[in-house]
Amino acid sequence: SESSPRDEFLYYTSQGQLEGLRQKNWKLLVKRQRKRGKQAVGNRRPEVLLFDLENDLGEQKNLAESKPEVVEQLRNRMQELGAEIDRNVRAPWTKS
C-alpha cells in the first residue's frame, strides 16, 4: 500500500541507448534508427511516441503530434537524466 518514491523511469535499448522516459502517467519513446550489421534499418529520423498511460494502458494512441509541449518537456528531462547518469557512471570492473 506504500507509494513508490519514484515518479520517473528511464527506458534503454538492449544496446544500452537511452530510448524513453516515463513520468507519472506520460510515457515518451524516441526510437532511433537501428543498425543491422553495417546497414541502417528503419527511418532516418527518430520515431517519437507519446502515450497517456492513465487513459491508454495498451499504448494504442500516439499523442506526440497533438501534445508537442509534453514531448518537449519529457525529452528535455530524459536528456537531463541521461547526462547525469553519463557523468556519474563508474568505470567497468577489471581484474588486476
- End-to-end C-alpha gap: 46 Å
Strand content: 25-35%
Structural class category: alpha+beta
Tell me about the biggest sheet?
Answer: 4 strands, antiparallel
Strand order of the largest sheet: 1-2-3-6
The overall strand count is 6
Shape: globular
Computed over alpha carbons, the radius of gyration is: 16 Å
Q: Which consecutive residue ranges, at least 5 long each, have pLDDT under 50? A: none
Provide a count of the helices: 1
How much helix is in the residues?
Answer: 10-25%
Summarize the helix and strand pattern as letters. Answer: EEEEEEH
Question: What is the residue-mean pLDDT, rounded to a whole number?
Answer: 87
Annotation keywords:
96 residues, alpha+beta, 4-stranded antiparallel β-sheet, two-stranded antiparallel sheet, 1 helix, 6 strands, 30% strand
How would you describe what is shown here?
With 96 residues, this protein is an alpha+beta fold. It has one helix at 68-88, and strands at residues 8-12, 18-23, 26-31, 34-36, 39-41, 47-52. The strands form two sheets. It has a four-stranded antiparallel β-sheet with strand order 1-2-3-6, with helices on one face. Strands 4-5 form a two-stranded antiparallel sheet.
Summarize the structure.
The chain is an alpha+beta fold.
Topology (elements, then pairings):
Elements (H helix, E strand, L loop, with lengths): L7 E5 L5 E6 L2 E6 L2 E3 L2 E3 L5 E6 L15 H21 L8
